[in-house]
Amino acid sequence: MNDLTRLSALAPQTEADPALSAFWMPFTANRQFKAQPRLLARAEGMHYYTPEGRAILDGTAGLWCVNAGHCRQPIVDAIARAAASLDFAPAFQMGHPAAFELSSRLVALAGKPFSQVFYTNSGSEAVDTALKIAIGYHRVRGEAQRTRIIGRERGYHGVGFGGMSVGGIAGNRKVFSGALLPAVDHLPHTHSLAHNAFSRGQPQWGAHLADELERILALHDPSTVAAVIVEPVAGSTGVLVPPVGYLERLREITARHGILLIFDEVITAFGRIGKPFGFQKLGVVPDLFTVAKGINSATVPMGAVFAREGIYDAFMQGPATAIEFFHGYTYSAHPLACASAMAALDIYQQEGLLERADELAAHWENALHCLRGTRHVIDIRNIGLMGAVELEPRAGAAGARAFEAHVKAFFEEDLMVRFTGDIIALSPPLIVQKDQIDQMVERLGRVLRALD
Ligand SMILES: Cc1ncc(COP(=O)(O)O)c(C=O)c1O
User: Fold this and answer.
1) Which of 161, 189, 267, 272 to mutate to test the pocket of ligand 1 (most atoms within 8 A of CB)?
2) Which of 231, 271, 420, 432 allows an S-S link to 428, with CB 3.0 to 4.6 Å?
């Protein structure tokens, strides 16, 4: 696998292994992967291990999600105990104690004004659930005309029809453009190399971009708008950190028009930027927020929506025997997911992991910004333990350079990085040590210098 000749080009170099053909891989260049597989066989702590035993330093916490580090024994044990004692319990008209205990713990972690949690199995489902809660909330309060949702360019909100519609990634939407939700509009994104390149933390320029919301609202009539949804820090399109004052303005405008503000915290929740939840770090409180991934350090699929006081209460109408919200999933609050979430929370709290990104932020920032001046690098951005290194696109081949960096990092440097367009994204498990941060940056630097 370390044969460097395999790395010189990304075109398939070998015949695809027929054993790999049946798995239609998600968000993957299937043909390239199957000709040059990057297989992970096991994991522990900060590392993945390939089938032949190479240790790969995990620069991405899997997919922004393994916040406690890999294969933590207390989580493994909790899942095993749950599987042996209550394998499944329906959450429709029935309940199990762990679901209620977890909810109380999560609500306490979020603090006031958050008072209820609705469970899903993924971030995408959490987003679609949040949109449905928002629209339903207005309806049960007599404002049924509020059905429009405003998202943002370069937002990623998963792949359900709701999330895809409010999301702002052209490539994700193109094929389905005729089938997206109709009552949606988008704010402009906040990324600007001209104004903000090499910002450290929140950039100074760009708060005024939130004022575009006023224009969009005037266009549609604010009384038709149910919610605005944004990631507090856009992750999947390359770590776009909110400009100073930007989220505050969104909050002010939405509140003034009676519109719910939804933060999609699927990446930023559970310690990624230095507090349990991103909104706590950024100081702007939404009405609803979504989580997934880090909720149980990604060990069992799970997502959730947190609702501010008053939202649940608004639904509690009609006969007490009537279902108040016609929504839910077979696996909502699955016992294994709840058990793993509580075990992850224990680890997070015992090891101070939900604040650790704050402690490491300065080291992380300085280490990443050492790559300034490295070949191809046109921007570096960071917040908490999230970071992005943006590369100059290769002429006529947008995205190729970062993709090649991802492959090279894996085969030549035993490092896992993510790429999106021509941006390398990094988000290590929250247990990362300073010397491992330094190693990541050194290895990435070597990869970049060796790239065409
Ligand atoms: C902000 C955000 N929302 C939603 C999602 C979708 O989550 P999932 O892949 O669990 O459906 C993601 C995934 O990366 C995300 O980053």
Assistant:
1) 267
2) 432
